[in-house]
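Schema walk-through. Below, the input block comes first and the output block second. Nothing else is stored per chain. Lengths vary across the set, and this one has 349 residues.
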Amino acid sequence: MKHENVQTYYGEVLQGSDDLQTNACCTPDDMPDHVKAVLSKIHDEVLTRYYGCGLIAPEALEGARILDLGCGAGRDVYALSALAGEHGKVVGVDMTPAQLEVARRHQDYHAEAFGYAKSNVEFHHGFIEQLEELDLEPGSFDIIVSNCVINLATDKGAVLRGAHHLLKEGGEMYFSDVYADRRVPQEMAEDEVLYGECLSGALYWNDFLSIAKEAGFKDPRMVTSRLLTIENPVLEKRVQPLKFLSATYRLFKLPALEPACEDYGQAVIYKGTIDHAPHRLILDDHHVIEAGKVFPVCGNTWMMLQDTRLAPHFEFIGSFDTHYGIFAGCGGNSPFNGLEQDGAAAGCC
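--- output ---
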């Protein structure tokens, strides 16, 4: 699928979220109150041109330098700028001029709404598969986010390689996207509506894991997932028998991560000091860490906590001196296993 087709679909065909024909892009009902408060300050025009899946916002954003891939009209950029604070920085990249025009004309509005002396955001026109061509410093971002956009990219591997190059060591890519339970047939991939609806550009989930690892993200972690439903019966028939999953992953740039989760007898204690997470931290879908409790972890999870911005919020027990073999029960299954068709397992990606 060509870039021009996607630009036309999101710049001209769609005028708002109501024009979408599937729930691949949706907003969860259980959005935290502090996020709702931020979104209430976003300009109406920016909100109406939003096509994403909830707000993609990991923990501990204060002062962070953040890059949003496929930022559209800037809703997530502005929300993240509020969460990162006046001393944070958020950069948005998008290939659709019509969307960026909306985003740029509201920079001063949001700086004033958030009480900042000046705007802490900027926007770049470009393709997320060609991040190296933009004026962005390698190794300069703490966090890279993307909100159901990578499936629209023509070269997913290039996106992940570019993101890895731009992240600081210890930084992470935290993003939502759509995945298929098998490889999408070529004739379906060429369907402009299915592609624009974030379906036929989706990667087979296991291919995604391979591509992520090849890009340098050695241990992809799924945070949330849900099966998609297609309300349009015509489109539903066109995608059968494929199933699609909306999921949020986090990918850490940590060169020392191992291919598997190894047991070194380590544990952590969460201090409960991250804003809006006083009782527990959800690292991923199988690491829900309660505050104050000794929580055994594999070596990779230890590094994801100790060698990242999350370190000040944890106490660390143990070392890498003794290896006890594989860490039991640490991921590895299909993300489609155990999900019901109603998608009740998790919120939007």
